[in-house]
Write a structure and sequence with these properties.
This protein is α+β, with helices and mostly antiparallel strands. Helix content is about 40%, strand content about 20%. A hairpin with a 2-residue loop joins strand 7 (about 250-255) and strand 8 (about 260-265). The longest helix is centred in the N-terminal third of the chain and has 37 residues, at about 55-90.
Length: about 350
């Protein structure tokens, strides 16, 4: 059998193998077998040195034709098999839109955020404005405008983190009192505001204190605002969060920015006033500080204390969460233990 006949047989066999190939792996194997450096076509062409010089051009031309035909057939079959594989994959991955969807686990707000949302929603329903301030505050608003001049001893209770000599991480949300008083137009009615947010103090990191915690500041300033309005407001808050059978009592206290100042206690929700370990057998639980806005605070913000007055209060959502759910270590709220946090499902 001469070289030309071998090439013809090789073409015939190659075309049959290409036609019968059923997957991409097989067609690639045929490509290597037929056209590779050590393939059948290369093997046949090694015999070119044994034919006459007159025959070599004709055989070479025929060999090129065979190579082109096999290459074209392989590429065509490869494209067809590739398309078939894609069609099968698309068919297998088709989504049946009539099937029920896979359930997706839904998260929930952090327990402290739940408390904040409850308090904010309550006050918004009573017509309060929500004012959110900056966590980095000027010293004049954090202290001076709240009746805490330099060297005031009460500043020691609010030791904090300074950014510059006159700028600090706010120790309370109370600076919003001064900022809101400065811009409020009392000709349009009383100022009723609530300000939730994070505050910072260099407190000892024990079971009941943290260097960062949350606070909600509330204030009402207008004409004819009395301590009775304050007590009634606090009673609404306590009953909304802890139950409608609780009462509120006010005890004299001291805060630089209120006068008179009070500590607010609620009936112990565990023993309903009978006395237990949670309330230290007093029947009452301290929940927040409040009082009538100090005349100096009003005056420094450009409000006439002879014409206007009001009350202010500050409550801690962290403490409220501890009381409401019986948590004895505030650090549990910030350790991101999902097993702990999942207990406080607002939908439950």
């Amino acid at each position: 059998m001469d070289l030309k006949e071998k090439l013809a047989d090789l073409r015939q066999q190659g075309l049959e193998d290409i036609e019968n190939s059923q997957d991409l792996k097989r067609i690639n194997e045929i490509r290597v077998k037929m056209l590779g450096k050590k393939g059948n076509l290369t093997g046949v062409l090694r015999g070119m040195r044994d034919i006459s010089a007159e025959e070599r051009p004709k055989v070479g031309q025929f060999a090129n034709k065979v190579r082109d035909e096999l290459t074209a057939a392989i590429e065509e079959r490869h494209a067809a098999l590739e398309q078939a594989a894609l069609n099968e994959k698309l068919k297998a991955e088709t989504i049946d839109v009539t099937l029920p969807g896979s359930p997706v686990a839904q998260g929930q707000p952090h327990v402290i955020q739940q408390i904040i949302d409850q308090v904010v929603d309550l006050f918004v329903s009573m017509g309060y404005e929500v004012a959110v301030g900056d966590e980095v505050e000027q010293e004049v608003y954090n202290f001076e405008k709240l009746n805490l001049p330099k060297d005031h001893p009460a500043r020691d209770m609010q030791d904090t983190f300074y950014v510059t000599p006159s700028v600090l991480m706010r120790t309370q949300t109370s600076p919003m009192q001064a900022r809101m008083l400065e811009k409020h137009d009392f000709a349009k009615g009383p100022l009723k505001m609530i300000s939730p947010g994070k505050v910072y103090r260099r407190d000892t990191d024990d079971a009941t204190h943290s260097h960062q915690f949350n606070q909600i500041e509330g204030m009402v300033v207008g004409k004819h605002i009395t301590m009775a309005d304050l007590k009634g407001t606090l009673k609404v808050v306590a009953r909304s969060l802890f139950g409608d059978k609780l009462d509120v009592r006010l005890r004299p206290s001291y805060f630089p920015f209120t006068e008179p100042s009070v500590e607010a206690d609620i009936t112990c929700f565990n023993c309903m006033g009978k006395g237990c370990a949670i309330c230290k057998h007093t029947g009452w639980i301290e929940v927040l500080g409040a009082g009538m806005v100090h005349p100096n605070v009003l005056k420094m913000s450009g409000v006439d204390p002879e014409e206007y007055g009001g009350f202010a209060f500050g409550l801690g959502p962290d403490r409220f969460a501890m009381l409401k759910y019986g948590v004895d270590d505030i650090r549990n709220f910030y350790q991101n233990d999902v097993r702990f946090l999942n207990q406080f499902d607002e939908k439950g």
